[in-house]
């Protein structure tokens, strides 16, 4: 059965990793998709593949979520029928660098704060009013992180951005309590995607090492949880899901097999 038949889902950061797996799982569940990322070719190819595989209708939008003007324009320019967005998956995000705060790169900090916090706010500010206008049983799914609950050494700014996602999710849930709109914060632990490659600015050796000796989560594991949360009956709000590989207890406590 296609649990999400006809629902319109906006996925940010759909060109890779968790966002891409979400798009695939959502298409399989019958959703119509608006996919955004900065790498237009990747989302355009994904959009075509999903059309061939699942007969999904989808729009691919080149968008840098940290650019407020571009976010406003992208949403304002959607064709009228695509503005009835039932579900927003705020997934676009990044960790940049792994170093002591006092030795870190302010440029990396700006990038993380602008993407992980401000980008999520900009999209939410534009899309939630549409959910209200069209009286939809809307749903905002934010991709936070275990880093938003447990800080770890050399990751202070990334952890702070994900902690912000945690409290933005809680605050938004309060602001929307008198509406049918649900808010879910998904907090994954170590998930093998392009994330560590981005963090280490393309150093593949370092990136691979992060997952050595453990069985990490896959982006498909997270996508499955997101589809589950979205597909719950309208009176069921899954506020928060924290999920880690079995070998990860908290952010920094990881058992690595030698
Ligand atoms: P990836 O690097 O594989 O994917 C990140 C996605 O975000 C890409 O599609 C990228 O697309 C997009 N993106 C990044 N910056 C922007 C931007 N400014 N505007 C639009 N899109 C952007 O990493 P993950 O899939 O792992 O990350 C997805 C989310 O999951 C992030 O929020 C991350 O913090 C979170 N997370 C990841 C964990 C992990 O261990 N992997 C653990 C916990 C949370 P493009 O470059 O084309 O713009």
**CATH architectural name:** 3-Layer(aba) Sandwich
Overall pLDDT: 97
What small ligands are held by the chains?
NADPH dihydro-nicotinamide-adenine-dinucleotide phosphate
Overall body shape? globular
CATH superfamily: NAD(P)-binding Rossmann-like Domain
Output the radius of gyration: 18 Å
Q: Kindly identify the CATH topology.
A: Rossmann fold
User: Given the structure, what is the number of helices?
Assistant: 8
State the total count of DSSP E strands: 7
> What is the CATH top level name?
Alpha Beta
**Span of the ends, CA to CA:** 44 Å
Q: What is the share of helical residues?
A: 40-55%
Order of helices and strands: EHEHEHEHEHEHHHE
Main beta-sheet annotation? 7 strands, parallel
Number of domains: 1
- Spatial order of the strands forming the largest sheet: 3-2-1-4-5-6-7
Beta-strand content bin: 5-15%
- List low-confidence stretches: none
Which structural class do you get from the secondary structure elements?
A: alpha/beta
